[in-house]
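Good morning C.,

I know you're traveling, so I'll keep this short. The sequence:
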Amino acid sequence: MDPIAVAIIGWAAAWWLWGRPQRVAEHRPTPPPSCRSFVIIPARNEDQVLPLLLDDLAADLDDQRQVIVVDDHSRDQTAACARDRVGTTVIAAPTLPIGWTGKSWACDVGVQAARDIGATRDDTMVFLDADVRLAPGALAAAAERHRELGGIYSVQPFHTTVRADEQLSLFPQLVSLMATGVGRRSSPPDGVFGPLLATSLADYDAVGGHAAVRSEVTEDVALGQRYRDAQQPVTVELGGDLIQFRMYPKGLGQLIEGWTKNMAVGAGAVPLLRTLAVFVWILAAGSAVMSLPYIPGNSGVPPLVGLALYGAFVVQIAVFGRAVGTFGARIALIYPVPLVAFIALFARSAWRLYIRRSVTWRDRTIPLGGARPAA
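The tokens, ready to paste straight into the viewer:
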């Protein structure tokens, strides 16, 4: 097929895939007294980042909010750094049952703790990853959006990066949003994102909660599908300036391990049409690179045309990257580097999914098929 046509079709498909993703709105609502928020933080070996999140929550006091930290068998000071915090309850997760992943189990334990404290069906459960950072008013804004929309409300935080290797998350981040259909207004997204989830206890119980997705590696995607199947509203918004995270601060090894866990498994939940459109975009981005002058394999594309195609992808990737994180023009200019990294990560993820039948995350080996993960 003509490489120019491939590049143009893929470039256009990406805009269709991207749509118009919304950001969480900044406002400071006053929740009604009958509607409390229980913030559940599943935490395993998070003593470097958990205090920062707890500081954010403490700086944004709310009498209607109760924070529950579930220590998921940490081998560091995670539990200690959360104790003696006003308004915070620390729970040690019991032994991981057969057939459960660690995060789903910790979330389930946190919900039971909320019930023990006095949570009612109308109260809001907010599940937060320990590496999330919150601006003042952010959690109230997210809780209010959930109360407005119902069902399950999810925020994909703005992805901050510090080191150069963290920029390799560019394509995995973009593809995850495109594949989920976050920006498509015509239908609800095919899944949610785990860093921040908000739902009422009544709706959570109605879909079976984390117990219904106990063995899923990508429990957030599976949970979102449970809400869709129950015809409950599913909403995903971007964190923007209010809700951020630094996804893999511990180095390249953590980045490889994290995306290996998520990519191929998550891809299995994407509708066929969207999967094909993503594939065409990746192919087109590579075709634009091969259209550049003096590139081996260039099939006679005129130099100016090749430069124009490459430039179009640079602009597109820069626009998308700035919306989701600190991925700007510099990484977009050399996008073949993170593109190759994405392809390698996806291949590794598929190998772990279909050949090894297990993934590793936070010192746990998680078998794919419902066996008991290593503690």
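Safe travels,
E.
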